[in-house]
Each structure stands twice: as structure tokens, then as C-alpha cells.
Amino acid sequence: MANNYNVLVVGSGGREHALAWKLAQSPRVNRLYVAPGNEGTSEIADNVPIWWNIEELVRFAKEGSVDLTIIGQNDPLAYGVVDVFRSYGLRIFGPTRSAAKIETSKAFAKRLMDKNNIPTAPFQIFRKIEKALEYVHQGGMPVVIKTNGVIFKKKCVTAEEAEKILKQIHGSASNEIIVEKALDGTEISTHALCDGNNFILFPVTQSLHNQGVIFPLPWIAKKTIQQTKNKVITPLLSTLKQEQRPFTGCLCPRLKITKLQGLNVLEFEASFGDLETQTYMRLMKTDLLDVLEACLGGKIAEFPPIQWHPGFAVCIFLGASPKALALGSIQEAEKIPNVMIFRYKDHFIGITATGETLKQSLDAAYQAAACFP
Questions:
Q1: What is the pLDDT of residue 171?
Q2: Which helix (H) or strand (E) holds 369?
Q3: d(CA 89, CA 8)
Q4: Using the 8-state DSSP alphabet, how is residue 233 labeled?
Q5: Which residues contact residue 199 at a Cβ distance below 8 angstroms, ignoring those fewer than 6 apart?
Q6: How confident is the model at residue 1 (pLDDT cuts 50, 70, 90)?
Q7: Angular region, 37: left φ>0, alpha ψ -120 to 50, beta rest
Q8: In 201-237, which positions are buried (b, 16+ CB within 10 angstroms) versus exposed (e)?
Q9: 266: β partners
Q10: CA 41 – CA 322 distance, rounded (Å)
Q11: pLDDT for the residue numbered 320
Q12: Same structural domain for residues 169 and 231?
């Protein structure tokens, strides 16, 4: 593997801060850039004032002799940033626009799962609002209503609530609306770094009411992990390859474990999860650059198992006032043992903490959160 890499991370959130923080630890990274970055990334990398301008990113990558570009979030993927970079012969980590459709089109993802027996909630897809209204009044409740893109998702308990939501999004949504049965159970997620054929799976994480994440989950049964590999990720990668849209990048399945139906896919994301990435990077021992290189080289099947530091990591997402940040609350919070703050472009932070036990890491994170009035 080559040394003295110049690496560009695209994004401005806590996820990109965490990726940059981990990459900065690699002895093989020479220059590290983040576009556009934030105040946190400026302490460990060179921020580049480019955002969502693919041609400008390409120009910078060429002029700055960038050896590898890493896409943190989905939005640039949806606009085909990977396709454009590849057309210029530039190396980039992330799926093509057609492969990223597994996230950007909920209807495409649901049809693909149904066709290939990937477990997911029963659903119907509608082009006409009248048919969708008829379905929610005749079908069992509760349901989850989604627009075809990544714009809207809402759980509805009653048919009246579903009708109200459908009428609200009618006309502003894309041409397809997905109505699926709401599933009860434990929601988890994982990350799979994929090279188009094979993948390496991260341990599972669990969301704290969409405001935080804990990792790892030692109480998750091994059979659940095996089902995720065999019934979800393997058939998905195989199908995408058959459809001439091989997936190279980070795949994040959002899963639910139910008592009756077992493991089900709620949805797929085609990029690194925000809060999950912040916890993963805190405990990952393996050089992240090495793993990404193996993906791009089609050699992930040969890569040794990723090594993790022992213990637990948590991340709490917090909005903080500009005044609180200006008063040095971040510095105060990071004086607490095992606490690290990842920044966002706006006035948000990800408070991460590690510990030998889950309680220790949570206690440290909430102690740090108290530093932000």
C-alpha cells in the first residue's frame, strides 16, 4: 500500500469530523483536507471552502494531488459525485449515483427487497393519492408513510392521521408514495464497507431516540448478525451487481428485530451514519485508510478482521448556542476523561464518550452535556 497519501473528506458535520480525526492518526496520510469542514476539522486538517460544487471538488482534487476522496454523507452521492470523479480518473470512496439509489429512491429499495426476498415490512407503492387513502382506510394500522426520496418519513397510528399526512404531502412529494406496515421491536443498525462483491461488517449500534447512539451491543444474538450478512447484505450486493450498479462504499442497513417477523430492513443508507460514525471512530483500532483502500482495490475479502478497542462508546447529539460554544464549553467538556466533541458547521455537536462499561460512557457523556447551558 502506498504511503504519503493526500486525502480529501467531503462534508461539514460530526461524521466528517470523526472520519478526519481517525484518518489523521494514519501514518500513511500526508495532507488531510475537509471540504468545507468546520471549526473542529480545522484543528486537524486544512478546510477547503467548497460545498456541493462537484466540478470545484474535482478541480481541487486534481490541483491538490489528492490521492483519495471520501464522501461522508448522501447528498453529493445523489448528484453523482462518484461518477464524475471516476470520469476524471480520480479515486473516490462511495457508491455511484445508480448504486446510491438504494437510499435515494425508497420505492426502488422496497421493490428490490421484495423481488429478492430480503426481509422488509409489507408495503404498497402509490402514484395516486386516492389509492393511498383507500389503502390506509382499509388496511391495518399503524403504518409508516414515506416519500420516494429522502425527504419525508412519518409513522401514523390512526387512519385519520395517515389521511392528514397524505393530503399534506400530496403535490409536494415525488411521484411515488410508500405506505408500509409499522413494525414493533428493537431498532438497530450496522455498517458494511463494500467493494462491489464482498463486505466487512461493523458491530451493530442502537439509536437513543434519534438523539444518540450506543456501541457495541453485546446482547444482540449471533444469529442476528449472521442473518444480516446472509439475508440482507449478501443478496443486496449480488442483486446490485447483476443490475450493473455494483455497490462500492459504505452501506448502512437500518434494521428492526420483531418478535413475530424476526429481522426486517427498515431502509438502507448509502453512506456513513452520522452519530454511528462518531462512535465507531472512537473505538476503531485498525487504520481506517487501510480498510478503505481494500474496498477500492476489490480486496475486502482478504482484509483481516477490523480490530476494536475494548469497552463502549456513546454519542449524544446536542444543539448548543453560539454563546455556549464561545465560552469554551467544548474545552471544559473535553477535560472530562474519555470525552471528545465532534463539531458541525452550525451550532451542533456530537458528544462522544468511551468507558469500560456502558454506564461509564453514558455518565461521562451526560456530564459533558451539562457543560453546555
A1: 59
A2: helix 358-369
A3: 15
A4: I
A5: 192, 193, 233, 237, 251, 300
A6: low
A7: left
A8: bbbbbbbeeeebbbbbbeebeeebeebbeebbbeebb
A9: none
A10: 18
A11: 83
A12: no
Which residues are within 8 A (CB) of 118 and not within 5 positions of it... i.e. 6 or more apart?
A: 112, 231, 232, 235, 236, 265
Of the candidates 2, 37, 1, the residue with the CA atom closest to the CA atom of residue 19: 37
Percent of the chain with pLDDT over 90: 80
Residues 85, 66: Cα–Cα separation, whole Å: 11
The angle subtended at Cα 213 by Cα 312 and Cα 316, nearest 5°, is: 100
Say what the pLDDT of residue 80 is. Answer: 95
254-283 per-position pLDDT tens digit: 999 998 888 999 999 999 999 999 999 999
Please indicate, yes or no, whether the overall pTM of this predicted structure exceeds 0.90: yes
Residue 70 domain-assigned (yes or no): yes
Number of domains forming the structure of the chain: 3
pLDDT band at 9; cut points 50, 70, 90: very high
What CATH number is attached to the domain comprising 147?
Answer: 3.30.1490.20
For cell 449472521, name the residue.
Answer: 226
